[in-house]
Write a structure and sequence with these properties.
This protein is α/β, with parallel strands linked by helices and 264 residues long. It is 39% helix and 19% strand. Bound molecules: S-adenosylmethionine. S-adenosylmethionine binds at residues 3, 5, 54-56, 59-60, 73-76, 79, 96-98, 113-115, 118-119.
Length: 264
């Protein structure tokens, strides 16, 4: 299946949709969602080499550009253009996460926010990430969860779209790909293990309300739904997974210290 983000017209429509939603929910994203969690888990230090794969408009690396050497890669030309406008330091490169254009062992941190799900070649991606990370380098992934209620609702919406003949609707195309390609906690953990990336911490995030009638959502909100991401058992079924891996095996392939300036 061709990556949807290579289709410029599609990206235009999808980007509009996501942008609108992001504006509406920026508070929620900040307090419950990925921004705080990614920051907390990534723990960037001054001078770190930070790579964002599927960087989109560059919002994640923008947060670190004054303290670190930041590089963003994205398969979409349009998103790369936006990221270039958004960040004032660092590099933005049009590339696929399946073939990272960097030398081995040059990155301290790799972050992937809602991007890995769009590729069906997860093993290749994890292998590439492991290759570019230095020894003890860290990876933080934020991605939809295959075994969540959110994914289930998306599956039902796909059936609804196909019954009503709306197969060209960008939401249908998007939901179809995400539901088909999302991984669970177990899939990520096992994939990481295969490529020398050890899962050291993970939690879940719940934000299903985008699909629910407001009355049901406010009831769930009262029950503290958004904060169940750390609850035992429940977190396996969270809407999104946020996982932190450390590269800590296969030492013979890793570089000592920070001698390399040129990462490409
Ligand atoms: C939902 S957006 C998330 C963007 C950004 N990480 C954020 O949090 O705002 C997904 C991004 O992944 C990118 N992407 C999808 N497949 C990719 C691939 N194989 N290689 C690189 N980037 C990819 C898309 O172009 C898009 O910019």
């Amino acid at each position: 299946m061709r990556n949807i983000w290579v289709n410029e017209a599609f990206v235009e429509q999808l980007d509009d949709m996501l942008r609108r939603r992001k504006r509406e929910r920026s508070d929620e994203l900040f307090y419950y969602g990925r921004v705080v969690l990614v920051d907390t888990l990534l723990k960037v230090k001054d001078g770190d080499y930070v790579l964002d794969i599927g960087c989109g408009g560059g919002d994640t690396i923008k947060r670190y550009e004054n303290r670190c050497f930041v590089v963003g890669i994205d398969i979409s030309r349009k998103m790369c253009k936006e990221a270039k406008k958004n960040i004032s330091r660092g590099e933005i490169v049009i590339a696929s996460m399946e073939h990272l254009p960097f030398k081995d062992g040059v990155m301290d941190k790799v972050v992937a926010v809602y991007s890995i799900v769009y590729s069906p070649h997860k093993r290749k991606i994890m292998k590439e990430i492991s290759r570019v990370l230095r020894e003890k380098g860290e990876l933080v992934i934020y991605d939809p969860n295959r075994i969540s209620i959110r994914t289930l609702i998306r599956r039902l919406l796909c059936i609804k779209f196909s019954i009503s003949g709306e197969k060209d609707n960008p939401k249908y195309i998007h939901h179809k790909i995400v539901t088909k390609q999302a991984l669970s906690y177990f899939d990520f953990r096992n994939l990481g293990y295969e490529v020398n990336l050890n899962l050291v911490y993970w939690c879940g995030i719940f934000s299903i309300h985008t699909f629910l009638p407001s009355k049901i959502f406010s009831l769930m909100d009262k029950l503290g739904y958004k904060k169940w991401g750390n609850a035992p058992i429940l977190k396996f079924f969270s809407d999104f997974l946020i996982l932190k891996f450390v590269k800590d095996r296969e030492k013979e392939n890793c570089k000592e210290g920070r001698k390399e300036e040129n990462v490409f």
